[in-house]
Automatic annotation (TrEMBL):
It is a single-pass membrane protein. One of its GO terms (biological process) is intracellular protein transport. This is Mitochondrial import receptor subunit TOM9-2-like. It holds the Pfam family Tom22. The chain crosses the membrane at residues 58-75. GO terms for cellular component: mitochondrial outer membrane. PANTHER family: MITOCHONDRIAL IMPORT RECEPTOR SUBUNIT TOM9-2 (PTHR46867:SF4). It comes from Cucurbita maxima (Pumpkin).
């Protein structure tokens, strides 16, 4: 007759060969709260990726619009200011009273 010894009966829940820490870890990772948190994190990542992409497009549009419309205006205003300064300098050298031209 074979002796049974002091063996515990086996549990048939799929965690037979796992230690206590592994069983607790698996039960926590299988919980509803963890699954919901993972889903929420995934949704947040998706939304932030979409937001980043649309922000990049908006920045590109704003940057190119600035280069096309505003930079030439700034250059032209600087040119006109330099021209007015040159006229005032020439007028002062020739002895005419320096007057600012009305705009």
């Amino acid at each position: 007759m074979a002796s049974r010894g002091n063996k515990r009966p086996s549990v048939t829940n799929g965690y037979d060969n796992l230690g206590v820490l592994s069983r607790v870890s698996r039960s926590v990772s299988d919980s509803q709260l963890v699954q919901r948190a993972k889903s929420t994190a995934s949704d947040a990542a998706f939304v932030s990726q979409k937001l980043l992409r649309s922000t990049g497009k908006a920045a590109w549009i704003a940057g190119t619009t600035f280069l096309i419309l505003v930079v030439p205006l700034i250059i032209e205003m600087d040119r006109e200011q330099q021209f007015n300064e040159l006229e005032m300098q020439q007028a002062s050298l020739l002895g005419a009273p320096a007057t600012a031209s009305p705009k």
